[in-house]
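Our working data are protein records whose layout never changes between entries. The record below serves as our worked example for the rest of this section:
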Amino acid sequence: MTLEQLKVFAAVVKFGSIRAASSKIYKSAPSISSAIKALESHLELNLFSREGYRLILTEDGHDFHVKALQTLRSVTELNSSTKQKEKKDKRLITMSIDAFFPHRDIINMIENIRENYPDMQLKMTTEYHGAAFKNIISNSADLAITPVKGSIDENVELKYISSVRIIPVANPNSKIAQLLSPVSSIDILDHTQIIIGDPCDNINERALTKLTGAKPFYVTEMITKRAMIMSGLGWGELPEHLVEQELESGSLVKLNFDSQLNNFSEHYLVRKMDIEHGSLANNIWKSITGPH
């Protein structure tokens, strides 16, 4: 008796005939008939009654069908468990990084990890508006570096990494940059705010403040947002590390508002605790540390 014979037998029972099973499991009808006969010969049982048009299970066939399904389920679970273990033991690590986290810190981090794990394979995604955290919750990423807001699931483990300063900036020749400092909350609303997101989304990230009543332009990623601000199409909040040279050269200016915006984004290394991580993911978790 073979596993393949059990699969063929279960398929014939499920689909009601050898012809139907043949089209579903992509095996020829003669090979299915042969497998069923071989199984019956091995068991010394008649599994089907062949008196009518359809194959009908005998009483012995019913009993054996129950046991066959139990065996097939056990095999499926064993294969799934083995594949999960193989996946954990692979050298592929998936990381989701919040777009406001400094690129230089990411590069330094990867260089340090690769030095210790030269055969590591890395898949990295850049995310906005808490998507990196959601990837951890959905098991789409092994590790994430992201701001964390609101209540935290008890199955999530956090490690503080760094604080990123977020500042409102504009082209020095733009109309909002010509206003007297500090710019009033009412005057802000007369000028276009460049926002990463979608008009349908309720954007309320700690480091991405959409001002109520503002005239927004929506973009999908950081490079476009920065380019639009530099061109004078509007103002917006950007990580300080991303505009250091522009602020120094004067091609961008920092805006001073009378109502202070949230200006720091606390970033954490995040992972799930209720899943089994591979040795590589565990070692990387230990090796990534925050400020000392």
Summary: The longest strand covers residues 156-170. Confidence is low (pLDDT under 50) at residues 203-208. The chain is about 40% helix and 20% strand. The first helix runs from residue 3 to 15.
